[in-house]
């Protein structure tokens, strides 16, 4: 199955980017790097870790002790970051290292602005196999790795454990289980939506496509073809939209909901099951303390069991080719993305690390709001087409329009998926 990662923020056209031409180099990859007297500039997105000052001080001190080099870390607002990257790439003024959100990595690699990291990763014993697959796929462009997985979150099923216990239900392990639970909730609690279908939330759609064995799009040579209209994809989309149109588990209002609307309704006590991110349970409880102890999580099941792939959201660390010492830059990337600092960042942000070895505690956890998400990420973390053009698909709202047309009765599943696949294919190949 070809799984590609979704961008955290919609990307702009790669054609607007200028090419930066400056290569770094120094010591052999994986060897000791002498950075005495050198300074690296690093851009990190602001807000993921609300108070990261102490973390930055600690990691910078450790890096200086290890290499002799200093680090200048600048926090960049997500809203301004893309334009700032475009300008800096065009002017050859990029930082040595920067956090790049999912398909930004493909975009900047396509512009020729990033250093490939394969030789560095492969020089570290066991690191290649330790990378979380979905993030590694997202960081790979033209068969080269340009984004080192740093952190990620994933969507799974979040549900009301108190409601399930009251009705003698168990967390769903198949699609039939979702329907069975939904019917029981609908009958016993008519004022609660068993499983609302949010029409303006494309990240919610793809697990059902993949769970049925379908694909969003595949690449043959240099040509992308959307497969949203394949028999498998149609079956997944029919099941998902059928939760609303056939089973009545949703509402007419949910046709225009975003994920934030879905979470708001859940915190108000109006939703029994939903797809939500690993970073959200704490926020749900903070918004409504009465939900404490009443929320559980479960992996998204495939049609007949197992784990349906779910879209990862997160970031890479990338090395820009304007750096004067790529080897030194890699040493900082490695320090941030592996070992204790990867674990510390994850603990402070509520996300998961980008390497599996740093997730051992989460995978071993018995916390019902941690373990299922960790399992989903490692065994079912997925991605959408790694191409700079996927931003155009998002901007056009191709997938959301398809779902809304089905929910609103304007198109049947076959027609809606055929139209969406044609539009996506065109956009991906521009």
Would you mind describing this structure in some detail?
The protein has 430 residues and is of the alpha+beta class. It is 42% helix and 15% strand. The chain contains 19 helices and 13 strands. Strands 1, 2, 3, 6, 9, 10, 11, 12 and 13 form a nine-stranded mixed beta sheet that branches. Strands 4-5 form a two-stranded antiparallel sheet. Strand 1, helix 1 (53-67) and strand 2 form a beta-alpha-beta unit. Helix 18 (398-407) runs antiparallel to helix 19 (413-428). The model is unreliable at 1-31 (pLDDT under 50).
List keywords for this structure.
globular; nine-stranded mixed sheet; alpha+beta; 430 residues
A few lines on this structure:
This protein has helices at 53-67, 78-91, 103-110, 118-123, 127-130, 133-138, 161-166, 175-188, 206-211, 231-245, 259-267, 281-287, 326-337, 339-349, 360-364, 371-380, 390-396, 398-407, 413-428; strands at residues 39-45, 70-76, 97-100, 140-141, 144-145, 148-160, 217-220, 223-226, 273-277, 295-298, 310-319, 352-353, 381-382.
């Amino acid at each position: 199955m070809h799984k590609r990662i979704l961008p955290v923020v919609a990307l702009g056209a790669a054609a607007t980017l200028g090419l930066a031409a400056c290569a770094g180099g120094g010591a052999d990859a994986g060897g000791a790097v002498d950075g005495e007297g050198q300074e690296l500039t690093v851009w990190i997105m602001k807000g993921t870790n609300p108070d990261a000052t102490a973390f930055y001080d600690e990691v910078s001190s450790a890096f200086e002790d290890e290499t002799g080099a200093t680090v200048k870390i600048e926090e960049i607002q997500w809203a301004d970051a893309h334009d700032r990257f475009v300008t800096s790439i065009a002017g050859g003024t990029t930082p040595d290292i920067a956090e790049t959100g999912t398909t930004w990595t493909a975009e900047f690699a396509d512009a020729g602005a990033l250093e490939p990291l394969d030789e560095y990763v492969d020089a570290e014993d066991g690191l290649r196999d330790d990378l979380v697959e979905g993030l590694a796929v997202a960081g790979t462009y033209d068969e080269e790795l340009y984004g080192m997985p740093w952190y990620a979150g994933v969507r799974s099923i979040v549900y009301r454990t108190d409601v399930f216990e009251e009705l003698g239900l168990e967390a769903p392990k198949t699609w039939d289980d979702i329907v069975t639970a939904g019917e029981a909730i609908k009958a016993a609690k008519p004022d609660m939506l068993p499983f609302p279908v949010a029409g303006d939330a494309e990240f919610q759609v793809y697990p059902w496509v993949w769970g049925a064995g379908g694909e969003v799009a595949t690449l043959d040579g240099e040509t992308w073809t959307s497969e949203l209209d394949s028999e498998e994809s149609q079956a997944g989309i029919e099941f998902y939209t059928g939760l609303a149109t056939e089973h009545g588990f949703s509402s007419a209002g949910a046709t225009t909901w975003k994920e934030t609307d879905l979470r708001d309704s859940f915190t108000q006590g109006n939703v029994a099951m939903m797809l939500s991110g690993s970073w959200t349970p704490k926020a749900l409880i903070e918004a409504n303390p009465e939900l404490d102890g009443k929320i559980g999580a479960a992996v998204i099941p495939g049609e007949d069991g197992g784990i349906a792939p779910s879209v990862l959201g997160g970031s890479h660390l990338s090395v820009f080719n304007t750096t004067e010492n790529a080897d030194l830059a890699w040493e900082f990337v490695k320090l941030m993305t592996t070992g204790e600092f990867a674990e510390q960042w994850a603990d402070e942000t509520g996300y998961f690390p980008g390497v599996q070895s740093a997730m051992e505690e989460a995978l071993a956890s018995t916390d019902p709001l941690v373990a299922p998400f960790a399992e989903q990420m490692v065994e079912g973390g997925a991605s959408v087409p790694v191409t700079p053009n996927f931003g155009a698909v998002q901007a056009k709202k191709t997938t959301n329009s398809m779902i809304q047309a089905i929910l609103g009765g304007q198109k049947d599943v076959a027609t809606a998926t055929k139209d969406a696949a044609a539009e996506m294919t065109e956009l991906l190949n521009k």
